[in-house]
Amino acid sequence: MIKGTVHKYGSNVDTDVIIPARYLNTTDPKELASHCMEDIDPEFASRVRPGDIIVAEDNFGCGSSREHAPIAIKASGVACVIANTFARIFYRNALNVGLPILECPEAVAGISNGDTVEIDLESGRITNITTGETYQAKPFPPFMRELIEVGGLVNYARSKLKQ
Amino acid sequence: MGQTITQKILAAHCGRDYVEPGELINARLDFMLGNDITAPLAIREFEKIGAKTVFDKDRIALVPDHSTPNKDIKSAELVKTMREFAKKHGITYWFEIGQMGIEHTLLPDEGLVLPGDVVIGADSHTCTYGAIGAFSTGVGSTDLAAAMALGETWFKVPEQMKFVYYGKLPKWVGGKDLILHTIGLIGVDGALYCSMEFAGEAISELDMAGRFTMCNMAIEAGGKNGIIAPDEKTLDYVRPRAKRDYKIYASDPDAVYRQVVEINVSKLEPVVSFPHLPENTKPVSEATHVRIDQAVIGSCTNGRIEDLRIAAAILNGRKVHPDVRLIVIPATQEIYLQAIREGLAEIFVEAGGAISTPTCGPCLGGHMGVLAAGEKAVATTNRNFVGRMGDPKSEVYLAGPAVVAASAVLGRIGSPEELT
Fold first, then answer.
1. Is residue B49 part of a domain?
2. Which residue of A has its CA nearest to B126?
3. How far is CA B361 from CA B198, B366, B419, in A?
4. Helices of type H across B27-100
5. Which residues on adjacent β-strands are paired with residue B225?
6. Rounded Cα distance, B217 and B240, in Å
7. Does pTM surpass 0.95?
């Protein structure tokens, strides 16, 4: 069960603002996390607490294929990202690095910045503790559930290689 | 049931005759690539997978093009990681500085990606190769790592969108203007998860450079891939370069599209995308009030010889405005050499422009032309997000090479028509 404070953003949060390219000369998750969201929310890195949740509108993670973006978000302590839609490369990358993401337009509409929200990843149930509302996220397709269950693509590839 | 070119290529790579949009498939990969930002992460994940060697050393390209020639010590370490991996695994297509070019221009020019291929790259602009009739798309580093071990990857078969361009292209209107106009029409998520097929008489008229530019920016509309069915121009380009066999596919007349968008190009003006999204498009005549500090001609979008020729024709005998820095970046060593041989390099230098060795550099605010707070650039690059070319308070305006070259002379955004 995830429980944390919401940091809410609008549409088209791109990977250049999630982690600007000027910091892509490192692959260290902690260093990347210290610059996460810097160009649209300079206080984010100092404000975020483990278990917090990012909520955003459409097309979250658009732009570059840099896996550094979900890595930075995950290393900053964010436990889940909820959005109306995700850009497709970000979607793959988040699954691959083990950053939970949920698509749920009802939750995005009902949740405000600073709300406390609880998420049951297993069932996709989202509860806004601040308002008492609950929402149901779209389930992952079976193949992606399998990927998540084996612990991501690296484990999946490792077992496939052994076959 | 009829299929599109994208469906047919994907079907052929998972041993099927037909694939349905929405279904998940495991596809065999013909080629894959990583660069100096994404490959080091992929190499780390590859080691975790525990594969002793790569699936095929002839089907992987490692191209250090983003922060090179190494801009700082950390970047040098990343490129070193790539170089050591390439040597250890005998990667055939490791491109050292001096042979290196911007990946999405280099690989098709070298005949390494071909019509009918399925290609993935750990770079979002991998969709460029759709211009030669390949299915190609960007992925992250872990996907590349698994692909280097297995030679295959999973895809959701995308829904199909078709864009038909009719009419005659006006002077100074090229591939960049068509794709920016299209993104302006449908928005930066207008083709989210979809395949974008470009067709029509105006596409037939476009040269290969213009077609590469269009497919390159499919990602800026959220597209999974951009694609153009091969024709004689494609084959003329591919034949002398191809390093493997290839196969030509075309969409069936009864292929099913989620949406068909028809665009009349005859009345288009050159297009400019305003900050901070590529969808903020305006005709150049509505952008002439924007004063600029920098003009950049280059990138995987517009760094080809044809782009440089357009810019040189405008800059020939003219001077760059005293308040503007013009940076010209040929995309590959071959194009650089060609620009010297054709006298284009001399025109750029005489005009007061700076010519750089191939690099992605300023496009992503890495090096070779980073902007300070409050500065504005007009660029032939592909993204104008907040902070993309430098300080978060700087601004990038996207345009084709004709507008960027003219703007460099005018000191503000403008059309070549304004130069007398």
1. yes
2. A65
3. 29, 5, 29
4. 39-49, 73-89
5. B195
6. 26
7. yes
Q: Domain of B97?
A: 5-262
In a domain, B168, yes or no: yes
Q: Which positions of chain B have pLDDT values less than 70?
A: none
Does the CB of B366 have a partner CB in chain A at under 8 Å?
yes
* Per-residue pLDDT reduced to its tens digit, B357-416: 999 999 999 999 999 999 999 999 999 999 999 999 999 999 999 999 999 999 999 999
Residues B258 and B291 in one domain: no
Using CA coordinates, name the residue in chain A closest to B44: A27
- Which among A16, A87, A89 has CB closest to B139? A89
User: Chain A interface, mutation test: which of B388, B389, B395, most A Cβ atoms within 10 Å?
Assistant: B388
Q: How many CA atoms lie within 13 A of B176 on its CB side?
A: 33
Handedness of CA B261, B206, A62, B373 (dihedral sign): negative
pLDDT digits (tens, 9 = 90+) for B162-186: 999 999 999 999 999 999 999 999 9
Q: Does B236 touch chain A (CB under 8 A)?
A: no
The domain total for chain B is 2
Distances (CA, A) of B44 to A66, A149, B34: 15, 22, 13
Give the tens place of pLDDT for each residue, B303-323: 999 999 999 999 999 999 999
ipTM exceeds 0.85 = yes
Among residues B262, B292, B310, which one ends one of the domains?
Answer: B262
